[in-house]
Amino acid sequence: MYIVELSFDDSPERLAVRPAHRQKLSDLREQGKVLNAGPFADGSGAVVVFDVETEDEVRAHMADDVYYSTAGVTVASVREWTPLFD
């Protein structure tokens, strides 16, 4: 499992592509590839929890979603995570 942490700035480009990004996340959730995702309450960024085996899989899903390379979105970290609870 991997956690992707994003940070945001005020760039309007991010908001323009956000609906398509959220649809991709919904599709990945239906496929069992995303466990959960959502923004921080203060709007400074977000977290996406990928339920995949390798970082390469995470990077491939990110490459398929323009949101991750859009102005206003910075990938702060991609980290492997071992949850304590299912």
- Secondary structure class reads alpha+beta
Oligomeric organization of the protein chains: single chain
**Shape by Cα distribution:** globular
CATH topology type: Alpha-Beta Plaits
N-to-C series of helices and strands: EHEEHE
Number of helices: 2
Question: Could you give the count of β-strands?
Answer: 4
Q: In percent, how helical is the residue content?
A: 25-40%
What can be said about this structure in brief?
Belongs to the YciI family. The chain has 86 residues and is an alpha+beta fold.
Write the SSE topology.
Layout: E1 2-8, H1 12-30, E2 34-39, E3 45-50, H2 55-63, E4 73-80
Antiparallel strand pairs: 1-3, 1-4, 2-3
Describe this entry's structure for a reader.
This is YCII-related domain-containing protein. InterPro entries: Dimeric_a/b-barrel, Sec-metab_biosynth-assoc, YCII. Residues 12-82 form the YCII-related domain. This protein has 86 residues and is α+β, with helices and mostly antiparallel strands. It has a single domain (2-80), classed as Alpha-Beta Plaits, CATH 3.30.70.1060. Helices cover 33% and strands 31% of the residues. It has helices at 12-30, 55-63; strands at 2-8, 34-39, 45-50, 73-80. The chain has a four-stranded antiparallel beta sheet with strand order 2-3-1-4, covered by helices on one side. A hairpin with a 5-residue loop joins strand 2 (34-39) and strand 3 (45-50). The longest helix is centred in the N-terminal third of the chain and has 19 residues, at 12-30. The termini are close together. The relative contact order is 0.34. The mean pLDDT is 97.
